[in-house]
Amino acid sequence: MNKLNIKKDTLVLVIIFIVINTVVLVLNNTGVGVPQINYTVVLIANLLLFVLTFVSYLVHIKSVNNNNPYAFVRGIMSMMIVKLLVLAGAVILYLYFFKESKNVPAIIAGLGLYILYSVMDVRAAFKLSRNKKNG
Fold first, then answer.
1. Transmembrane ranges (predicted)?
2. 115, HSE (Cβ side, Cα atoms, 13 Å)
3. How many CB atoms sit inside 10 A of residue 38's CB?
4. Residue 20's pLDDT is what?
5. Which of 32, 57, 67, 115 has its CA 20 to 30 A from that of 129?
6. Torsion over CA of 64, 65, 69 and 72, rounded to 10 degrees?
7. DSSP assignment letter at 66
8. What is the mean pLDDT of the chain?
9. Rounded CA separation 131/104 (Å)
10. CA-CA distance, 10 to 74, in Å (whole number)?
11. CA-CA distance, 125 to 115, in Å (whole number)?
12. How buried is 91 (Cβ within 10 angstroms: 0-12 exposed, 13-18 middle, 19+ buried)?
């Protein structure tokens, strides 16, 4: 497996994390963004999903090197479920502690970030698989 591709995929993940944080902070500080969104919740969701996607990427690297062909599919599916359960748990905790001041638009933005990070995760995983077959 090519170490340059691993570094490139990791760099893309970090760049997207930084871009999303920058956009959220600019929207929050300039007042241009949607005033109903609690941007702190979106930033925390972005951080949580970034960490989970990075861990997921490490699991994919390990599973693509496994001789069992089903390990790769298990790695992808298990990490998607883990990400979904952790994000659902975070939403439940948020709703429990902030009953009156809950912010549904921020939760929906976090779920949108989940979709973005999941697409990136699966794309990177299949790229890893394709690179292993070719090299």
1. 12-31, 37-59, 71-98, 104-126
2. 5
3. 19
4. 95
5. 115
6. -30
7. S
8. 86
9. 41
10. 21
11. 15
12. middle
Provide the percentage of residues in the chain whose pLDDT is more than 90: 44
Q: How many CB atoms lie within 10 A of CB 89?
A: 10
Q: How far apart are CA 59 and CA 100, in angstroms?
A: 38
CB atoms within 10 A of CB 28: 16
pLDDT category at 6 given cuts 50, 70, 90 is: low
Domain boundaries along the sequence of the chain? 3-134
Q: In whole angstroms, give the CA distance from residue 40 to residue 42.
A: 5
* Tokens 């089903």, residue located: 70
List pLDDT tens digits, range 99-110.
888 999 999 999
